[in-house]
Amino acid sequence: MVGLRAPRRAEDVTVSEGFRLSITEEARKLGIKAGDRLRVKVERGAIILEPVKPRGALERLASIADRLLGGLHRAPA
Fold it and tell me: For 19, phi and psi rounded to 5 degrees?
């Protein structure tokens, strides 16, 4: 979760066509911007949205290597 903890305050939003939600102004104060990625979790009947932290380039490449090649292959030094 984002490091800032705001007081818990519930606001109603409406699900529009395409199952889109509007992020409330209060939630945007946590630094969420258009284009940011959010992780959707369901816990005990509640829907939780958490910002996905951007990963560094090397970490993204390692992830791709893991998926496509079964892990990084390092040349001997």
Answer: 60, 40
- What's the rounded Cα separation, in Å, for the pair 47 and 19? 13
CATH code for the structural domain at 1-77: 2.10.260
Amino acid identity for residue 68 in this structure: L
Asked if residues 6 and 26 have their Cβ atoms less than 8 Å apart, the reply is yes
Query: For 1-76, where are the alpha helices, taking DSSP H only?
Result: 25-28, 57-69
Q: What digits encode the pLDDT tens for the residues 30-46?
A: 888 888 888 999 999 99
SS3 assignment, position 41: strand
CB 27 within 8 A of CB 12: no
Backbone angles phi, psi at 20, to 5 degrees: -90, 145
pTM of the model: 0.52
